[in-house]
């Protein structure tokens, strides 16, 4: 496994790889590190279908708000490298902020995510978050020029906004959505779970339980969003639910769910930690 910390080294590798292996495909897995089995599932998906897998590990400052946890965000360089090497990753790209944003002025985002999708839900409480996400994702796409890039359905809004950017800008790559990985009890894996106490984790299990209750209700034939939300909120009673919405892939609220185009998104705050989960129907 090779580890690159500069954009120059990465670019040199990509140029050589592409000229020496014109038929071979490159898979990119963008992450912020503190890797867990959720990230690993994306890495494995890339290893399965691409000839060369590049994992980026970069805690991107432009997607964090002023009062958010950029400085506290877990950084586990050695453990992450071990996970990547063991999985069989070819390249890890772990740049410093100064590599990705060489001038302070470049910390201003230059690309605006479409407001209708970016200023709602996560974007409502995290102003500018998706501009920062798109800024770094576009930088990574331009540096790596991957054939495929792998993103988790766990961050549903992020995935949909990235897919929209790729479509709108005719970017020459495929976005591969990957299923949510959960622990044995159903809690969606997240680097931020590390902030929770054991009792916080027990409370957090009710989030996936609420989505399971919705799945069962859908299987019983219930299609009405209001009723499905009521069922989910019953399971979450007593918890601080920041939002629970039933939307289409443009993130617009819908009254009746429709197969293959409906998303149920929930954010619950437990012990000050915002926990996201969702159900793609
Ligand atoms: P992050 O390091 O949080 O930026 O996540 C990097 C990628 O891993 C994103 O595409 C996430 O959606 C994905 N991811 C994080 N947690 C999970 C999970 N539990 N299951 C599947 N994908 C995940």
TrEMBL record:
<feature type="binding site">
    <location>
        <position position="63"/>
    </location>
    <ligand>
        <name>beta-alanine</name>
    </ligand>
</feature>
<comment type="subunit">
    <text>Homodimer.</text>
</comment>
<feature type="binding site">
    <location>
        <begin position="189"/>
        <end position="192"/>
    </location>
    <ligand>
        <name>ATP</name>
    </ligand>
</feature>
<keyword id="KW-0436">Ligase</keyword>
<comment type="similarity">
    <text>Belongs to the pantothenate synthetase family.</text>
</comment>
<feature type="binding site">
    <location>
        <position position="63"/>
    </location>
    <ligand>
        <name>(R)-pantoate</name>
    </ligand>
</feature>
<dbReference type="InterPro" id="IPR004821">
    <property type="entry name" value="Cyt_trans-like"/>
</dbReference>
<dbReference type="Pfam" id="PF02569">
    <property type="entry name" value="Pantoate_ligase"/>
</dbReference>
<keyword id="KW-0566">Pantothenate biosynthesis</keyword>
<dbReference type="GO" id="GO:0004592">
    <property type="term" value="F:pantoate-beta-alanine ligase activity"/>
</dbReference>
<feature type="binding site">
    <location>
        <begin position="152"/>
        <end position="155"/>
    </location>
    <ligand>
        <name>ATP</name>
    </ligand>
</feature>
<comment type="pathway">
    <text>Cofactor biosynthesis; (R)-pantothenate biosynthesis; (R)-pantothenate from (R)-pantoate and beta-alanine: step 1/1.</text>
</comment>
<dbReference type="GO" id="GO:0015940">
    <property type="term" value="P:pantothenate biosynthetic process"/>
</dbReference>
<keyword id="KW-0963">Cytoplasm</keyword>
<dbReference type="InterPro" id="IPR014729">
    <property type="entry name" value="Rossmann-like_a/b/a_fold"/>
</dbReference>
<keyword id="KW-0067">ATP-binding</keyword>
<feature type="binding site">
    <location>
        <position position="158"/>
    </location>
    <ligand>
        <name>(R)-pantoate</name>
    </ligand>
</feature>
<protein>
    <recommendedName>
        <fullName>Pantothenate synthetase</fullName>
        <ecNumber>6.3.2.1</ecNumber>
    </recommendedName>
</protein>
<feature type="binding site">
    <location>
        <position position="181"/>
    </location>
    <ligand>
        <name>ATP</name>
    </ligand>
</feature>
<dbReference type="GO" id="GO:0005524">
    <property type="term" value="F:ATP binding"/>
</dbReference>
<dbReference type="InterPro" id="IPR003721">
    <property type="entry name" value="Pantoate_ligase"/>
</dbReference>
<dbReference type="GO" id="GO:0005829">
    <property type="term" value="C:cytosol"/>
</dbReference>
<feature type="active site" description="Proton donor">
    <location>
        <position position="39"/>
    </location>
</feature>
<feature type="binding site">
    <location>
        <begin position="32"/>
        <end position="39"/>
    </location>
    <ligand>
        <name>ATP</name>
    </ligand>
</feature>
<dbReference type="InterPro" id="IPR042176">
    <property type="entry name" value="Pantoate_ligase_C"/>
</dbReference>
<comment type="function">
    <text>Catalyzes the condensation of pantoate with beta-alanine in an ATP-dependent reaction via a pantoyl-adenylate intermediate.</text>
</comment>
<keyword id="KW-0547">Nucleotide-binding</keyword>
